[in-house]
Design goal:
The protein is an alpha/beta fold. It has helices spanning 16-27, 47-52, 70-79, 99-107, 146-150, 168-171, 182-193, 217-230, 232-236, 239-255, 261-274, 279-302; strands spanning 6-12, 34-40, 59-63, 85-88, 94-95, 114-125, 130-133, 161-164, 195-208. Residues 7-143 form the Glycosyltransferase 2-like domain.
Length: 303
């Protein structure tokens, strides 16, 4: 049996009602030289029965006996894959039939500096609202996208990306310390070492459900802080981007329901020190500092 050119993987946990749609969208690709690895992260529903109903030799099923999480599951997929190129899908999203074929055609034969190719996605929210990523008519989509990504414009999603296996030698696998936003960390590391190509067609549909783990604002804020701290040295090479990211974190800690004015103060101060002539950084620092002091006074008086 020949080695497939592309390894496609789906990590899943208790998503049997939605998983069929994702699997069918992969098996219906016009490009057929791929393997499909499905990692079941300890599901307790009918996931195994659903997968068994597909009689396709390209499917490989791997099960975690206990739940490990999304990024350990992604790594299980990668460790068990053999393709020259790797594509990662989620259990509730869909691919357009031409996705793999177009992306493989774009990336084959490219120089080593090209790490991957990505397509435009359509995000469909549970409310019915739709959005396109990257936005329609967005121009900065090819070549070196590091500063774009560090700025927070994560226009590359794992579901839309096809990357070279060889890249893993430089960037490693997914960081399992992340609960959410580990995809963002992976893409930052990929962008630090490689350039990208863009397929300007909608080839992925992302379904954002109410129970999506990436929708929890507190978790997303914590994950963005984790990303910033992990790549602090890289961010500091770009003072404008570093200051704005620190300001965004400070603003989030000062305005969300679970206030943390100590962190808001510290990130606002970092932003102001980095770029001292931007008044909004100073205003946030003063506001967060005053709120922090007032909360300490109130807390001490209660004692």
């Amino acid at each position: 049996m020949s080695i497939p050119l592309v390894s496609v993987s789906i990590p899943t946990f208790n998503r049997a009602p939605l998983l069929r749609r994702s699997i069918e969208s992969i098996l219906n690709q016009t490009f057929t030289d791929f393997e499909l690895i499905i990692v079941d992260d300890g599901s307790t529903d009918d996931t195994k029965s659903l997968i068994d109903s597909f009689h396709d030799p390209r499917i490989r099923y791997i099960r975690h006996e206990t739940k490990k999480g999304l990024y350990p599951s992604r790594n299980t997929c990668i460790k068990n894959s053999v393709g020259t190129y790797i594509a990662l899908q989620d259990s509730d999203d869909e691919w357009h039939p031409k996705k793999l074929g177009e992306e493989v055609a774009l990336i084959q034969g490219t120089p080593d500096m090209i790490g991957g190719v990505f397509s435009q996605i359509e995000k469909v929210y549970f409310s019915g609202i739709k959005a396109f990523v990257p936005p329609v008519n967005y121009t900065h989509t090819n070549n070196n996208l590091l500063t774009t990504i560090l700025r927070g414009d994560f226009y590359i999603t794992m579901q839309a990306l096809l990357f070279k296996r060889a890249c893993l030698e430089n960037i490693g696998e997914f960081d399992e310390n992340f609960r959410v936003f580990g995809d963002g960390d992976f893409i930052v590391r990929l962008a630090e070492h490689y350039e990208f190509l863009y397929n300007p067609h909608v080839r992925v549909t992302l379904h954002v459900s109410e129970d999506s783990i990436s929708r929890n604002k507190s978790d997303r804020r914590a994950a963005r802080e984790q990303l910033f701290l992990k790549h602090r040295i890289l961010y500091m090479q770009y003072p404008d981007i570093s200051a704005e990211f620190a300001y965004t974190l400070g603003h989030a800690f000062a305005t969300v329901r679970e206030y943390n004015f100590g962190k808001a103060r510290d990130y606002a101060r970092l932003a102001f020190i980095t770029k001292p002539f931007r008044s909004k950084y100073l205003f946030l620092y003063i506001y967060a500092y005053i709120q922090y002091v007032l909360k300490r006074i109130v807390k001490n008086n209660i004692k």
